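$ ./design --mode recover --in tokens.txt
reading tokens...
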């Protein structure tokens, strides 16, 4: 599996981890589940397509990681309610997955992420 198909899920919500795992498997992605916020070097070594935070609180707690990855092609996703979209973006999320999470919204986020990454790479050439 190409490295760019990895998604790191950060959080300890076992139900969400199961759901994301199923969605990822169905869409040919590999999920790495971490309960704690990893070091920047660990994330860069894994070279994921995206980091998905299971909650807005988790994203807020990981601001050092998010800031440290700003110059890398690793996009930040977060599961949150629609009312939290503005706050999620303020905290560095590139896209959010609204509750209740559906397979279609998961695919939409990944498609948006992949399209944005490709557009950003070509605009830097």
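writing sequence...
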């Amino acid at each position: 599996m190409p490295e760019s198909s990895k998604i790191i899920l950060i959080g300890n919500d076992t139900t969400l981890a199961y759901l994301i795992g199923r969605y990822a498997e169905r869409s040919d992605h590999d999920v790495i589940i971490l309960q704690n916020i990893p070091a920047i070097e660990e994330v860069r070594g894994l070279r994921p397509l995206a980091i998905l935070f299971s909650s807005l609180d988790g994203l807020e707690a990981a601001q050092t990681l998010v800031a440290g990855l700003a110059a890398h092609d690793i996009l930040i996703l977060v599961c949150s309610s629609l009312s939290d979209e503005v706050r999620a973006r303020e905290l560095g999320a590139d896209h959010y997955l609204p509750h209740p999470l559906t397979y279609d919204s998961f695919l939409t986020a990944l498609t948006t992420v992949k399209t944005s990454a490709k557009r950003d790479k070509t605009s830097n050439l």
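exit 0
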